[in-house]
Amino acid sequence: MKNNPFTYLDEIVQLALREDIESGDVTASLLPENARSKTRVITREKAVICGIPWFNHVFKTLDENIHIEWFVHDGDHVEPDQELVRLDGPTRPILTGERTALNFLQTLSGTATTAYEYARQLKGTKTKLLDTRKTIPGLREAQKYAVRTGGGKNHRIGLYDGILLKENHIDAAGSITNAVSEAKKRYPEIPVEVEVETMKQLEEAIHAGADIIMLDNFDHAQMKKAVIITAGRAKLEASGGFDKETLRAAAETGVDYISVGALTKHVTAIDLSMRFLD
User: Phi and psi at residue 274, in whole multiples of 5°?
Assistant: First the structure.
């Protein structure tokens, strides 16, 4: 499984800067060319910090002479008004990169914080928290890194590293059995997951040799029954609108995984602030 969150770091940062700066930062150009400044970034709320490599790359792309001093690391838990980082260097590029750098840091910290809040609901159970492909376009690997930073686990990264046979795939193949058979024949090295909506489909997926079975919108009684029927012959993943209040009860049914799209698609950015130092 491809799992390097920095594969597209430079490409993503360049794109983010280009959409903000385009032909030039006309406001920063009003400042003296030789001006230098010291700034600091603080958080206005509790958070799990994530996104430092993207933040750093923004400023190093704009000007290698900007000195960056961090007081935290990705994965650290921080409190309101805590100082995270200081910058010292040419004023123009610091101001030009401020919003882009903070966008990365606040978004990925928001993802990591959400993942942490969900993952802690599963402590003491065997169930692992998974993300989904419902990510912000262009930030797939960054957000999946943020989920891991917050204590969650990654589902497949993309369409290339895991097979997930959903309703439309199964309909097109003719049956679960046909779809799994073709997947095993063509990609024997890739895990095969099947989404099921009924107990009958569950039993067919088990007999077909699925490695993982996704229980789509099963209630708690159905999940418990599915665990008994499956008896360890495949891993079970529960999916379907779970939130922090319902996660624990679902885990206690004995499923192996719970996938939550909200980890990456319902992101609330962390409130950060950059201010000049006297």
Answer: -110, 130
Please say if the pLDDT value at position 1 is more than 50: no
Enter the DSSP assignment of 78: E
- At residue 2, the pLDDT reads 53
CA distance 226 to 218: 9
> Contact, 269 vs 136, CB < 8 A?
no
Phi/psi of residue 192, nearest 5 degrees? -110, 120
Query: Which one from 60, 134, 184, 224 is the annotated catalytic residue?
Result: 134
DSSP secondary structure, 88-99, as one string = EEEHHHHHHHHH
Q: How many CA atoms lie within 13 A of 133 on its CB side?
A: 9
Could you confirm whether 99 is annotated as catalytic? yes
134 belongs to the catalytic site: yes
- Asked if 265 and 98 touch (Cβ cutoff 8 Å), the reply is no
Encoding tokens for residue 115? 């993942």
Residue 112 in contact with residue 118, Cβ under 8 Å?
no
86 is catalytic: no
CA atoms within 13 A on the CB side of 84: 33
Instruction: Tell me which amino acid residue 84 is.
Output: L
Which tokens in the block code for residue 265? 């698609």
**3: pLDDT strictly greater than 70:** no
Report the DSSP pairing between strands 192-196 and 212-216: parallel
Q: Does residue 195 have an active-site annotation?
A: yes
